[in-house]
Amino acid sequence: MKGYFRKRGNSWSFTIDVGRDPETGKRKQKTQSGFKTKKEAQSACASLIDKINKGYSFDNHNVTVGQFIDHWLEHVAKRKVTERTLLNYTRALDRRIRPYIGTLKLTELKLHHGQKLVTEFLEEGKSERYIEYTFTLFRGSLNFAVKTDILQKNPLEHLELPRPRQTKKTTWSAEEIKRFMIFSKTENPYYMVPLLIAARTGMRRGEVLGLRWDKVDFERKKITVEYSLTFNEPTKQFIMVSPKTKSSYRQISIDDDLTNELKRHRKRQLEMKMLLGADYDDSWNLVCCSTNGRPMYGRSLAHHFDHVAKKAGLKKIRIHDLRHSHATMLLREGVNPKIVSERLGHSSIKMTLDVYSHVTLDMQEKTADIIKNILNF
């Protein structure tokens, strides 16, 4: 494949053959113009040929939004992000973009299509933050369509998105967590253990459900976080994925109470394994699993969490808010924010302080009282 260059007036253009139309058999060409020099045209031509050779460009006349999404996820996003992030991308686009405009021709996509969807999602009660995430992702994929000549310009470039509101984290106090655990112990212990781990370590739900026994060091009282369990909806399979960032790989110190509870739970699992025999799946080696050793569904755990919280008469929070509760309690007790950041697996201490700014305001007030007592005269 090579380009043909031509000068018209004061600008240069190039044309390249990109094969033949499968229906008509006629030669298909791409032309770009408006270059000030032949060298600029040659550079742009070489770049376009490289993209076409890598399979990044296809017929832009009939391709639909849904087909483009498939292409972008498979050939672009898949090479740049982790498997977990790719699943999140796929889930967001499949749920919020494809059902509404997936059959629309990509070249017919206009700003008003996106703006109408934003309005509909707001009216449905979708959060501003989720709407911003979805359309920032979709708009970013369309930038690739522009780079590869599928679109002349990004139709959603000027899309107006709602600004996410700053909301205060909903957390439980230490007394509320204790009350929850008392009620939880009267229920299914297989659900109680992962919730106890989440409250005492600040680990994410996927990290808790993906924790393996070989990553629990009883002697040193350490948990090593290396994987996260997620459920791949398209394939209907559980998969273990690597954490999103380097800082998510971490070791977390655990207390004696949690250590002893884990030992009891391990004994409970071994007894169940002996009872079920060949029906027990020990291949996953999970700390938090179903009674048959298989991975536990996150939704099932969330349902149990809501059930126990309601039974205990506690305000409604999410499982992820146990993580926020863990961090909030530590910061209010004066634990160094760097230590808290390391336990949470945050990429920086700044992220921790930004997320928990409401706690640092309380710390400011305590600091004022401390300096008053020090310099009291």
Automatic annotation (TrEMBL):
GO terms for biological process: DNA integration; DNA recombination. It comes from the Bacteria. This is Integrase. Pfam families: Arm-DNA-bind_4 (PF14657), Phage_int_SAM_3 (PF14659), Phage_integrase (PF00589). Residues 63-146 form the Core-binding (CB) domain. Belongs to the 'phage' integrase family. One of its GO terms (molecular function) is DNA binding. CDD domains: INT_ICEBs1_C_like. PANTHER family: PHAGE INTEGRASE-RELATED (PTHR30349), PROPHAGE INTEGRASE INTD-RELATED (PTHR30349:SF64). Keywords: DNA integration, DNA recombination, DNA-binding. It comes from Alkalihalobacillus trypoxylicola. The keyword Coiled coil does not apply. Residues 167-369 form the Tyr recombinase domain. Residues 16-38 are annotated as: Disordered. InterPro entries: AP2-like_int_N, CB, DNA_brk_join_enz, Integrase-like_cat_sf, Integrase_catalytic, Integrase_recombinase_N, Integrase_SAM-like_N, Tyrosine_recombinase_XerCD.
